[in-house]
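can u pls check wat happens w/ magnesium ion
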Amino acid sequence: MLTTSFLNSRQISNETIRPFNKSSFSYGAPIFLENTINSHHGDADSASHLALKAVFLDRDGILNYDREDYVKSPEEFEALPQIGGPLRRIRENEFLIVIVTNQSAIGRGLTTHELVREIHDKMRKELEKQGASVDAIYYCPHTPEDHCDCRKPQPGLILRATKELGINLKESWLIGDKESDVEAARRAGCRAIIVPANDDGLEIGVRKILANEV
Ligand SMILES: [Mg+2]
Ligand SMILES: [Zn+2]
């Protein structure tokens, strides 16, 4: 059972970068984790009894305005209005909030890991202003040509979070704005809701999840 102290623990921001199953990537590319929860690692087998449920969120189009030319810098990151309320309701219902986001602009040479971390610092501040926060951020820096295991629709980001945070996928959801988000969730084994981008999709998604909870 998820304890309140766990939910409220704010060990911000031990953002770490860890190698991820290097052998599965052509050039040993890591998966990137920015983790703010007091993570209690279980392996996949021991995770099931922890039964933490999560809402996985796509980032661009769900939490901030997506851009045709990618969000490449903090200046280009613009949080959507009124995301604080739905994020708080997710938390109040004892879900972890985990961002899973494709950031191929890194692999394309349009931005860098450092800038992405700065973007996420800005995002956390914006969320804080709206009275909300997220527990962890996982992003894929690869391009489609890298054929990695983590770029959605591949399920790698979700599976990595599931293993590291002790998430029960059957109790979990994903909210995204693309078919690739839904497909990643399907492959990982959690439910998904597709919503309009750059609008009140988060609110719509959260309402659907909580309607299903009761
Ligand atoms: Mg999106
Ligand atoms: Zn990847």
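The pocket of zinc ion (ligand 2) is lined by residues 140, 142, 148, 150-151 (CB under 6 Å).
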